[in-house]
């Protein structure tokens, strides 16, 4: 399984500490365990910022980064080894493992944090911390600060400034390294195979959850522990619900099915959407809408390159879709005037994409100084135009109603343009129909 190497975590920590002011400390808690119900826990997934800097997969952990600390700049608090608990819950790294396997300079039991961390904070003029992300930890941190303040008469020096850590850290996360792109490509390839499998399995009479099961099988078979987000399998008019979640409707002959799904590898997401006919053949109206969305998808790629700004790809999709809706008779009027009036929004109400990385809607500012961010190599994003014609839309002919189409790919900005990571899933009408025809013949 492709993973981020240990050397990269070290490089990231050094890069962050290079951005920090002298005589400062950065503090990050691990993601907490969440209860699903009663004594059943949700599957654990590490906090993305914590994972980005450490690769350490355990809960009940805290990172302290202290530039210039004589006894080591990277301190990790984590659970101690405990054979009795490990018998029930799985192996732990312990303090020795934190140092030998995860690169910590120093490691302490999490149970000792109240005694040790205030001493590491004391004397530091600035604390980098993401206030508001973890209220319970916010409270604990304030208690430690107040403990230091209470000793000011004895010479203790509390920090005098708090700085949002996420602002620095998220800008670093926006630029993907070669290793990160390699992992994201692996996630995209697994997800592509899952989408192909779902297309091949589709037939009338199945339910949306049958196709979701095919996705999950391929994700796990490929080594992914979990989907990157809740999979959307939306047949017929359900495809017009952008974040449809039920996945329990029957697949009907003559309907389209929209699948928005991707897996996660080493905490890196893929995000793919494909739309295809349940029975393997597009109707004339479905084909017209589909090919319009596909044209917008492919046009967007031409506007993703260094020096172009973030919104150019979206603007390109709006231009293509609005012109196409006029040509099909779903909108009437001058294209530029319709765009200015946002007349396309009842059909295309979301943006053409988002940053992609450890979070499926990844971190990073879209505007800098009030202007759209200029794209640079290493930035990763989705391209996902769509058209959704509500089943109750009385402003269009009945033949169009209930058609929902979205086509989504994952791309990384390169020095000369962009690299599409999700080419493993058929996208043209001819390719989709050929794949599904072959599958039905085999069945």
Overall average residue pLDDT: 97
CATH fold-level assignment of the largest domain: Creatine Amidinohydrolase
Instruction: Provide the low-confidence segments as ranges.
Output: none
Biggest beta sheet attributes: 6 strands, mixed
Q: What's the CATH superfamily of the largest domain, by name?
A: Creatinase/methionine aminopeptidase superfamily
Helix content: 25-40%
Shape estimate: elongated
Gyration radius over CA: 25 Å
**Count of the separate structural domains:** 2
Q: Strands across the major sheet, in which order?
A: 6-5-4-1-7-8
How would you characterize this protein structure?
The chain is of the alpha+beta class. It has two domains: 6-173, 3-Layer(aba) Sandwich (Creatine Amidinohydrolase, Chain A, domain 1); 175-441, Creatinase/methionine aminopeptidase superfamily (Creatine Amidinohydrolase), CATH 3.90.230. The protein is built from 13 helices and 21 strands. It has helices at residues 6-19, 48-54, 83-89, 94-100, 113-121, 135-149, 165-174, 178-201, 208-221, 284-301, 312-327, 335-340, 429-442; strands at 24-29, 35-37, 40-41, 62-65, 74-78, 106-109, 126-129, 161-164, 226-227, 232-235, 256-261, 263-265, 268-269, 272-277, 367-368, 371-372, 380-383, 386-388, 404-406, 409-413, 418-420. Strand 7, helix 6 and strand 8 (161-164) form a beta-alpha-beta unit. Helix 5 crosses helix 6 (135-149), helix 8 packs antiparallel against helix 9 (208-221) and helix 10 (284-301) runs antiparallel to helix 11. The protein is elongated. The two termini are 32 Å apart. The model has no long low-confidence stretch (mean pLDDT 97).
């Amino acid at each position: 399984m492709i993973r981020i190497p240990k050397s990269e975590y070290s490089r990231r920590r050094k890069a962050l500490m290079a951005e920090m002011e002298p005589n400062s400390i950065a503090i990050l808690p691990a993601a907490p365990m969440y209860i699903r119900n009663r004594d059943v826990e949700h599957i654990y997934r590490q906090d993305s910022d914590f994972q980005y800097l450490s690769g350490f997969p355990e809960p009940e952990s805290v990172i302290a980064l202290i530039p210039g600390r004589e006894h080591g700049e990277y301190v990790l608090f984590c659970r101690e080894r405990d054979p009795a608990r490990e018998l029930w819950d799985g192996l732990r790294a312990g303090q020795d493992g934190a140092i030998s396997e995860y690169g910590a300079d120093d490691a302490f039991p999490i149970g000792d944090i109240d005694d040790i961390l205030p001493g590491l904070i004391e004397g530091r003029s600035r604390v980098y911390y993401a206030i508001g992300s973890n209220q319970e930890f916010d409270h604990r941190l304030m208690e430690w600060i107040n403990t230091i303040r209470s000793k000011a008469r004895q010479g203790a020096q509390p920090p005098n400034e708090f700085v949002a850590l996420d602002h620095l850290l998220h800008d670093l996360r926006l630029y993907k390294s070669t290793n990160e792109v390699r992992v994201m490509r692996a996630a995209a390839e697994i997800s592509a195979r899952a989408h192909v499998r779902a297309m091949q399995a589709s037939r009338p009479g199945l339910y949306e959850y049958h196709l979701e099961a095919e996705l999950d099988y391929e994700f796990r078979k490929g080594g992914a522990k979990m989907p990157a987000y809740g999979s959307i399998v939306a047949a017929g008019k359900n495809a017009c619900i952008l974040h449809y979640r039920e996945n329990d409707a029957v697949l009907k002959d003559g309907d389209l099915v929209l699948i928005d799904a991707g897996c996660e590898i080493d905490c890196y997401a893929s995000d793919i959407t494909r739309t295809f006919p349940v029975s393997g053949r597009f109707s004339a109206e479905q084909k017209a809408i589909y090919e319009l969305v596909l044209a917008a998808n492919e046009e967007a790629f031409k506007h993703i390159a260094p020096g172009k700004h973030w919104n150019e790809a979206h603007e390109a999709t709006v231009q293509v879709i609005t012109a196409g809706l006029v040509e099909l008779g779903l909108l009437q009027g001058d294209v530029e005037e319709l765009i200015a009036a946002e007349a396309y929004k009842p059909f295309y109400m979301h943006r053409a994409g988002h940053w992609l990385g450890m979070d499926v809607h990844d971190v990073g500012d879209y505007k800098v100084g009030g202007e759209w961010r200029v794209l640079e190599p290493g930035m990763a994003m989705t391209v996902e135009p769509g058209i959704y014609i509500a089943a109750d839309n009385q402003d269009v002919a009945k033949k169009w109603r209930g058609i929902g189409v979205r086509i989504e790919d994952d791309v990384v900005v390169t020095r000369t343009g962009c690299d599409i990571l999700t080419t493993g899933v058929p996208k043209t009408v001819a390719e989709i129909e050929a794949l599904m025809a072959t599958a039905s013949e085999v069945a």
